[in-house]
User: Fold this.
Amino acid sequence: MGVMSWFKYKSPFGLAFAFQRITGIILLFYLILHLCYLTSLQSRELYETLTSITVSRQFIIFDSLLILCGVFHGVNGIRIIIHELGIGHELRRVVLAVSAIIAILGWIIGSYILFMALGD
Amino acid sequence: MKFVIRRFKDDKSFWQSFEVPVKKGMTLLDGLFYIRENIDPSLAFRASCRMGICGSCAVKVNGRPRLACETQLSKFKKEIKIEPLDNFRVIRDLVTEFEGFFAKHKKVKPYLIANTDYENPIEQLQTPEELKKYYIFTLCIKCGSCLSVCPSSATLESSLGPAALVSAYRFNADSRDRGKEERLKIVSESFGVWRCHSAMECSEVCPKQIEPAKAIQLLRRETLR
Assistant:
């Protein structure tokens, strides 16, 4: 079945696993794109021109989604580490619910800070 | 109730519907037997004990693996979708090939390796506390539900899968066993414990609630000692 099996989840845990994979790929792709973008900026004028496009209200939705990917990947990663240490398997549903709440709160707070920073 | 069954004949798969009269207390397995005895005798499925012990009748019900003999039809509304388990080769209709699954199981030496003197055998004593350490994992009935939902097993066929690793942990945690090192060597290889990505689907679908994901993590910990 290959990688398509990631999306044949039967429970919220399988869904979290699929999201972990997807967000991991998105973050890797973004990192490569980000490094390519930064290394291509050879002058101050070019830097200011390009950042005026990307650091804008039109791009805030992408930045917000990037925060969601990063926060979810990090929090879910910590949840997996906890279980991989053999801890809390019986409480896994509670741990998943708590990590989902933390991820959503982190996303909202991060997006708010970003929005406020752009407002200045 | 409408039974929608995914059938396989001559390398072709198709969905077929059957109307089954449902009575109180009727299980999915009863429904399948009703179809075979009254509607279509060619319907193939596997069953044996009818009481959740043999693990033969695991099928995918509305997308989730379940034991047909322990699934009450009253749980469902008007329609029920039944398919063979994923990650197994289908032989016919709901019957899947389990040879590979048992071969993986055999690989981890799922038996007690003890220093037994067969000329003068003595009782192998164990305290209730020692039994408690692994008892839950002895309840595995090898139904294959865990392997059918394991994304790691789906992407790598040689992956041992949850059931075999549960067995390995069960015997390693047994105070009477002396084969720990042999088993740890086997499960430490790339197709063993390190193949697990902690998706935890195995623990969610296990009909005996034995937490295969926990056994794998405990086994991992042992390999690092």
About this structure: Chain A has one domain: 14-119. Chain A has a mean pLDDT of 88.
